[in-house]
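Researcher: For the annotation table, I need structure tokens for Helix-turn-helix domain-containing protein. Please keep the output clean. Sequence:
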Amino acid sequence: MQIEKRCQYCNKTFIAQKVTTRYCSHSCNQKHYKQIKKDGKVQKKNRDTKAIDLVYIQHKELLTPSEAKEILGIGKTYMYKLLAEGELKSIRITPKNIRIPKAEIENYLQKRLNKEKSKIQPTPTKLSNNMNFYWSISEVEKKYKISSKALYDLIKRNDIRKLQKGAKVYVKKSDINKIFNS
């Protein structure tokens, strides 16, 4: 039995041996399959990254995590990490329904901005004149018998400013004394 059909990929006419044949050749079949898969991925990506109407969000007081992540410009995983760690406070409406107050997002952004500003500290130009107020990291390690990793963790946790002069890093004696004497 020979049936004249049109190829679904290239639209050429061909003689088919079966009623179920859809393509003129194996290569057309492969190309069409790949095109269908690619189109499916593009549609899925478009569905996942649908544009959120920012005008609509401006009038809402409670935001979904996906709306909040769009405002913050972060990914889904990091958004849920912030919620789990308590960096962003949320309201659980039902066990699977979370809302984030807009004020919490503003507070989080303000905290991040202040943190970034505190990291940018100019190194004092007259550090050599004030050396009696500073210890180098190695001096602190020796004095308090602490590893450098543990010391850096303490410095980071307590938001102690580090000052670098050349290859050495210095910290204020008063800040270190507050940690170890408390």
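Researcher: And a one-line annotation?
Model: The beta strands are 3-6, 13-16, 62-63, 91-94, 97-101, 134-136, 162-165, 168-172.
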